Amino acid sequence: MKKWQAIWLLVLVFGLGVLCGVVGTRAVVRLAVRTALQQPDRVWTRFEQRLAANLDLTPEQRLKVAQVLAIARREFQQLRVETRPRSVAIMDRVESDLAAVLTPGQQEQLRILRARRPLFLPRDVSGPPGE
Hints:
Layout: H1 2-38, H2 40-55, H3 59-101, H4 104-116
Helix pairs in contact: 1-2, 2-3
């Protein structure tokens, strides 16, 4: 009997470890994505720091890399500004198409879910995320 108890305990501990790993990984990934969307400058800064550290850049190279990345950052910000209206239009269409498929009760549930955690792009932000 004790042998089976030990096996079950081992399986339980293993299962809890897997569960903790999955939940922890999901939380870390969600935080990373949220940070990237809400604070894109922070992502660029980390990228620049990693390049400097991993490539052992000289001070002169660091300056040039910072300039290259600053230009790219501005270009990506402009791209987000330019594509945002189209993205919002697509998300509006998706929400409308979903509403056509759902029952009134499901539509209400979707509204509640969206209020709790926006499924798509927030409509009250005029510029790119993080600004």
